[in-house]
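Progress note, sequence design subtask.
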């Protein structure tokens, strides 16, 4: 399995996603500031991977903190959490992970400092394993929804590279293929950062899953020609009413799928569900550098000084979403009720 990120004695080791697919290079971040930078610059990206990278970054910062007393350690811990929180605004997994590390800190704050440090390292490692298990479970839950044969379109990269392993949308595809389904994946290239062509195509080819790369503006034509039987993609945040923030271009794919009567599935772990955000209009959308649009692989492709917009994500209204696939189960509209029910069912089961 691709090791997207890994806790090691010398720091957090990441596969450098800015170098793929031409170079399989790894970087080790030995301070929490370096981890924050790796998230900001998209060495590591994808909502679940960002969340666990954040938790590991916090654990690393706490491990190396100088404070000998809990009060000092708490001050440093809060500073570390603040730095990590400022990296990327849209994926709620980042804030979910920080919240979970804060809860853990409170639970163990009566203990001696070395034990607090160890508890936070253990918590981050637990989150890593939980993420892989969640992806495998949601993969199984979603696999049954895909056709036995045919084309499945995906957008961006919601694969092993966007998670701690196996992937969300690509986890569903992997599980379907493992169960014997004969799928042909259509991967949108996903301008401007090209996660589809650079990352999705790379990781699916590594697994020998039949993959066809298309540029984003080809999706409608492929649907019209009957080549796409289903769409499955990931999410950066799912609001309480089922509106979904995901990579820019997702909304376009959703409207196209609706027009062609093609099922549109969103696959995400429960850590991506944000019941505190009522609807998509309240989700902060990250704006990224104009250079991602004006340049490709360092080469300028637009006139100097042209005005650019570069929102990294868009909102897909819940009415376009056929089902949301999670490790807890598959939910269907109306999402305001079905998501709440799933939250309560799980809370009751773990009580
Ligand atoms: O900007 P990125 O590459 O972090 O955006 C990633 C996406 O939009 C993914 O589709 C999403 O995080 C789901 S990943 C399992």
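Output:
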């Amino acid at each position: 399995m691709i090791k997207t990120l890994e806790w090691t004695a010398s720091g957090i080791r990441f596969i450098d996603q800015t170098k793929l697919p031409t170079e399989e290079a790894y970087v080790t971040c030995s301070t929490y500031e370096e981890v924050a930078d790796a998230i900001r610059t998209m060495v590591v990206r994808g909502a679940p991977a960002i969340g666990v990278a954040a938790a590991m970054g916090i654990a690393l910062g706490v491990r190396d903190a100088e404070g000998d007393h809990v009060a000092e350690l708490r001050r440093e811990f809060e500073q570390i959490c603040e730095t990590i929180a400022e990296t990327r605004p849209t994926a709620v997994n980042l804030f979910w992970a920080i919240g979970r590390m804060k809860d853990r800190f409170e639970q163990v704050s009566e203990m001696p400092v070395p034990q607090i440090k160890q508890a936070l390292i253990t918590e981050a490692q637990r989150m890593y394993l939980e993420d892989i298990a969640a992806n495998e479970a949601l993969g199984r839950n979603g696999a049954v929804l895909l056709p036995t044969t045919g084309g499945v379109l995906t957008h961006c990269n919601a694969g092993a590279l966007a998670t701690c392993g196996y992937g969300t949308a690509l986890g569903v595809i992997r599980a379907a293929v493992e169960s014997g389904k004969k799928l042909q994946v259509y991967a949108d290239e996903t301008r401007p950062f090209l996660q589809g062509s650079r990352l999705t195509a790379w990781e699916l080819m590594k697994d020998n899953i039949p993959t066809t790369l298309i540029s984003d503006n080809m999706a409608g034509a492929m649907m019209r020609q009957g080549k796409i039987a289903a769409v499955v993609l990931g999410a950066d945040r799912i609001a309480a009413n089922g509106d979904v923030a995901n990579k820019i271009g997702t909304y376009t794919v959703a409207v196209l799928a609706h027009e062609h009567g093609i099922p549109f599935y969103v696959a995400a772990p429960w850590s991506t569900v944000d019941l505190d955000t009522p609807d998509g209009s309240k989700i902060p959308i990250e704006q990224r550098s104009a250079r991602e649009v004006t340049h490709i692989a360092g080469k300028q492709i637009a006139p100097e000084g042209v005005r650019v917009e570069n929102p990294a994500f868009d909102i897909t209204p819940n009415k376009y979403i056929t089902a949301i696939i999670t490790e807890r189960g598959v939910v269907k509209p109306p999402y305001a009720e079905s998501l709440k029910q799933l939250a309560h069912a799980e809370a009751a089961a773990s009580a």
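The first helix runs from residue 32 to 40. Work on this subtask will continue into the next period as scheduled.
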